Amino acid sequence: MEKAYDHTKYESKIYQLWELSNAFSPIVPKSKNERLLAKPFCIIMPPPNANDPLHIGHARFVAIEDILIRYHRMKGEVTLWLPGSDHAGIETQFVFEKKLKEQGKSRFDFDRDTLYKMIMEYVQTNTKTMHNQLRQLGASCDWSRHKFTLDPDIVQFVLNTFKKLYDEGYIYRGKRIVNYCPYCGTNFSELEVDYKETEDEIYYLNYGIINIATTRPETIFADVAVAVNPNDKKYSSLIGKIAVIPIIKREVPIIADVLVDPNFGTGALKITPAHSATDFDIGIKHKLPIISVLDDQGNMTNCPVEYLGLKANQARKKVVEDLETQGYLIKKELINHTVGHCYRCKGTIEPKVSEQWFVKIKELSQKAIKLIKDKEIVFPSRKYEKFAKNWLKNLRDWNISRQIVWGIQIPAFRCQKCLEWTITNGGTPQNCHFCKHDKFIQDQDTFDTWFSSGQWPYATLKTTNPGDFDFFYPTTIMNSSYDIIPFWIIRMIMLGFYETQKPPFKVVLVHGLVRDKHGIKISKSKGNVIDPIEMVEKYGSDALRMGLVWGANLDNDISLSEENIKGQRNFCNKLWNISRFVLATIPSKSIYKFQSSKPKTKNNSDKEILKKLANTVKKVTKLLDKYRLNEAAETIYSFIWKDFANDYLEKSKLRKVEAQPVLEYVLSISLKLAHPFMPFVTETIWQEMHKHSLEKNNLLINSSWPKD
RNA sequence: GGAUUUGUAGCUCAGCUGGUUAGAGCGCACGAUUCACAUUCGUGAGGUCGAUGGUUCGAGUCCAUCCAAAUCCACCA
Fold first, then answer.
1. Which bases in strand B are touched by protein, i.e. have an atom under 7 Å from a CB?
2. pLDDT for the residue numbered A352
3. CA-based, 20 to 30 A from A700: which of A168, A270, A589, A593?
4. What is the pTM of this model?
5. What is the pLDDT of residue A422?
6. Which nucleotide lies closest to A262 by the C1' atom and the CA atom?
């Protein structure tokens, strides 16, 4: 063995050794009796987006899940970690369009099929990179069961669920205000809109007998009413009377609604249902018509001819000029208010009325809440349980259509004759239910990516090996960072229970984000990005993994510094050198049987270290069962470095031959304890130890978890 | 406006159901050196656990109030 541990020499070889021995692929017991005795342990990996290399956040979840997986595998449970990748709808299409733009092209240069094929190729290349990166991180997942969200069998499940939801009355098509991005050409869910404080001009306008204030004068042509608060005394005499829209001189009613804030602007609000969410709600309540003055490209329409075709901000300028010359502009002032921006392209979101597919959420979310209340789904962290329940409680109907190509096209077919919709689970229908016509056009929209990933746990297990679903479902643990609880975790609970009448997982293990060494959020613009693969190459996978669980408990965000990773690299080297010391006196050619059971001894320092070892085993086991990975890691670190190396090993130098059995025993148990955290260095040492062993295929990964 | 969380050593953070002199890593100071390891070893400095009250035999831990900070959600004409 060399003087220092050089991870670059061993890591990829060790991973190959595991993969070739099928160590990651569980064998589901065939007979009923065997199955009753076997204990399943299953984690479905949150499928990384197939559009970019892995970032440090992925590395954290890989570390966490791999630690748990290896621990349970060593405990003898039938352990499956199922890897996957996510087509990640809008995200991926956006990343891809950025690449197109670099080549001076756009999505409008291609037809639907071509664009889809191009993105698919791009995604497949990325997926390969991602898989190799997962290998570099040491992920002991079962590659033979890998699934992709656009695998045909997965897609079929998603289509079936949509059809079932439709048949059972959970799906409807409705007019709603959606967050439309004219640049991206699609709408976004509420969660995908960033609200930013913006300084804008607000214009006070004369509407005949009443004055209003607005930041969007270009939409006055879409006004259908003026509303005041019913308790606002200064306007009570005007309710029911008529206001007049400037320039076009259209008469609209003055109505009363509690949603109007009497202290804002003039206390009177122009109602524009097509371009504002609040106005839309008020419009529905008062049965007002909807007039839209902006088309899908964000150009003016349904307005006087001089504004036709202008962009909203151009139109605004011109309208304001005209209002001023015609004497309708009373005053303008600057205000700070929040405006929705597209989280992808950062452009202004245009609230827009459009027809979308919705899932009725109430019943589904109530059942999900009940599963959590009944502890059928357990959140070890109280705060994230509250977070998830709170989200479920406040969910609104779920808009699942997106106006993009990259995704699963919605199986909704519109009859060309009567324009009614027919829903299938994939194929074009034979005849229209309503008029018997046989020509259809399929909806161009695709599903929200979370609608398909929300079905991930059962869709994957039902499409891998026969028997997987029965044995592994409900899965044991779902692990994710807290930021995708609203998008993903709660959707999986709702759809999983809807489809299987069982929770999709028993435990939701939520972890925090990775931050830089000062606790600052990592972002490209701040330049504090930590590339996991760079760290692996520099310090080794084991060091990075330890760094990612070290120092902060799972719930909280973790501050990761290169110094910390370096310190863990030093720990790997410490373990390496302990082994070098222990193995130094072993004859190198003959067959050697290592001390694998607890040695009998009368020596006091022997007894002391054996006792400390037993306590450490007990403590680490308990901590791992409670998901307190940071404390477990620290316990192992401190035992190996302080108790074993600095204390016992130093003392043993005077009596090396006599102490040899204890040294061997403590080393082998230490390797087992450390293996889930630092799989590469521990396996490398194990292989070194068993070079001349009689047992074939003696892999640490397959060994058993220590008991005392 | 609603919800959640945090405040412990210079920095980043552990400390689970309350129980001796409050811990780790990094950093800092001093010292050691052909020893398995300089990716090392030894010694040490450094904290009235955000503040004030309360419960208790006993509070970093539980309760109340206050101060400071963070995150998420809603609204903004």
1. 3-5, 11-16, 24-27, 36-42, 71-77
2. 84
3. A589
4. 0.89
5. 94
6. B77
